[in-house]
Amino acid sequence: MPQRTGRAPVNRPLPPLVMRAKRDAAAAGFGRSCRDEVGRLLATLAGTAGAGPVGELGSGYGVGTAWLRTGLAPGARLVTVDRDPAAAAATGALFAGDPAVTVLVDDWRAAAGHGPYRLLFCDGGGKQGGPDAVTGLVAPGGVVVLDDFTASSGWPPTFGGEVDRLRVSWLTDERFLATEVGTGPGVVAIVATRR
Ligand SMILES: C[S@@+](CC[C@H](N)C(=O)[O-])C[C@H]1O[C@@H](n2cnc3c(N)ncnc32)[C@H](O)[C@@H]1O
């Protein structure tokens, strides 16, 4: 019987665009890009978002954006925002000449003017504000993804010995149906569908 490692295959080839973004991020010393497991989840969900739009709060160096772009349906729009000019410039360079992708250099709130989103990767500004901060950016039936939570088997989930209030707020909000998905050893993402 094959061993159960709790991991997705690590040697599965990456899309060329993602490889390029990861190289750019590494060259800039940026270590906060999403994991490959999260990226594959984003690409898969982007494929269900129809004409979109698809949004990302916190572009970083474009790794998450590249995964979202990989799954984007033909004709759909992808909007990503980062307040850090260097990060936004790197992401902008990656998608130069791609009419499907808009990169904003701004606070995350600027993304509201391009929504409401069918899929929203909430990965920078806005994340700490919980559902109250970003619900207005999400179309009915739209999906929000938040990554990088430490796995916790009990209820309520804890982090550092304290109740993880941010995670509880997403998992119990009446406006969403939400679950946690394992995205690597000891880490989970939240996937929340707006009712
Ligand atoms: C975790 S990184 C994003 C990684 C990226 N989504 C990826 O998967 O490769 C978070 C980003 O959010 C940006 N950020 C933080 N606060 C922000 C705000 N208020 N508005 C816009 N961007 C913000 C940071 O500059 C940083 O680049």
From TrEMBL:
Signal peptide: none annotated. It comes from Actinocatenispora thailandica. The lineage of its organism: Bacteria, Bacillati, Actinomycetota, Actinomycetes, Micromonosporales. Gene3D superfamilies: Vaccinia Virus protein VP39 (3.40.50.150). InterPro entries: SAM-dependent_MTases_sf. Pfam families: Methyltransf_24. This is Transferase. It comes from the Bacteria.
